[in-house]
Amino acid sequence: MVFLLVFDIPQTAYDNGGQFLSIWITPATVCLAIKLENNYQYLKENYIPILTGIISGVLLHTILILALYLLFFFDGELFATLYPKSITTAIAVGVSESLGGLESLTVAVVVFTGILGAAIGPGLVLKS
């Protein structure tokens, strides 16, 4: 959002660019589902640590977004935009829309979160 304000980019121009990115979101989600299906046995054997990680992540994410909301006096629209940042983009857009958030900014936040996770995630796993 700061990027749009600093460089004086109109919301409509940003939305038009986001539509191009949205074309590739559904195929990427399908590829993720295929990868999960191929690893079903591993997931089934390790469901307790996986669920523990998912639940911990969801709780921490909710607390973090709520803390940012209270600390920086976000309005409800920005809260609804940031809240679905840690799920797939295709689902996050629907969640953001249903909560009254800005869909195009939600896409940017989800993509940024994914890139950040891909960049620092392997290093964190290797250190643990």
UniProtKB/TrEMBL annotation:
Signal peptide: none annotated. One of its GO terms (cellular component) is membrane. Keywords: Membrane, Transmembrane, Transmembrane helix. It holds the Pfam family LrgB. It is a multi-pass membrane protein. The chain crosses the membrane at residues 20-36, 48-74, 105-126. It is found in: Membrane. This is LrgB family protein.
